[in-house]
Write a structure and sequence with these properties.
The structure holds two protein chains of two kinds.
Chain A (H helix, E strand, L loop, with lengths): L10 H19 L6 E5 L6 E5 L5 E5 L2 E14 L6 E12 L5 E8 L8 E5 L4 H13 L15 E2 L9 H11 L8 H23 L1 H10 L17 H4 L2
Helix pairs in contact in A: 3-4
Chain B lengths: L3 E3 L2 H15 L3 H10 L4 H16 L3
Helix pairs in contact in B: 1-3
Classes of the chains: A alpha+beta, B mainly alpha.
Chain lengths: 240, 59
Amino acid sequence: MSSAGEPADSLEAASAKFATAVQETLDGVLPGEREIISRRAPDLERYVVGPQDRDGVRLLVGGEPLATLSLSMYLSLDRSGTFLKTVRSDMAVKSTLDRTPLIRLDYRADMGRAPASHWQVHAERGAFSHLLARAHAVDPSRVKKPHDLSSLHIPVGGERFRPCLEDLLQFLVQECGVDSKDGWLEVVQRGRELWRHRQLRATIRDAQEETADVLRGLGWVVEAAPGVDSEEYSPTFVRW
Amino acid sequence: MSPVVTVTRSELEGRRRALLDELGLSLEDFEALAETRTLTGHEFDVKEELDEIAFLLGE
């Protein structure tokens, strides 16, 4: 669900379509009700897609609400100024006991020092904290919060190869035991297939010469038309 | 189709003031706090909403 892929003259409709896709995915996987909306900026082509209820999407275990899923998908124009793109997404699973996050999956296209896409795990591990504290003692700029494991950003594939919402949903159902609806796995797999094909298409645009080489190796006849800008978009392959 | 809700600049700015007033902090103080210690559950919720407001305001 990275890009709504709609022309710039219908960005509002594209954001609504994107919100509808998120709604349908959640409705196909999780029991209960929720409404996903697109919040539009007052005077900019910017949208944030997420639950209308700021408390997030309820996650049930044996019918009991034990956690919530917060979702915020930030949409803006892409580099070409033509398509709506997810420039940032924040997904956080929070305990209903204290609203503290348990695990987070965040992505920012313009991320600075941290990985563009990363998990943050809100947990404790003494031996890990020991390592971080020693690094902090050697040089505080290496590790700023040695006693806070959630401050670590665990990299997961960069902009193009990052996990999608469906991966998080399958993790919640299959690994965490969250209640699910009949047929949830088909919904997840269908959504993941769309996501990965969309990411593949974006990656091909980023690496056209290499793509053409691979196709030639497979027996295709591929030649660039005059005027094609095939320069590689290196951040896709360089940035973590 | 999911609804699109357009929020006004004054609504966003008012909501940001209300969130910060509740914490008794300026935006700069809150950002500094988030850099130096782990946020509580409520503070984390506030940060999420402040980030969203800043994005919609084009900041």
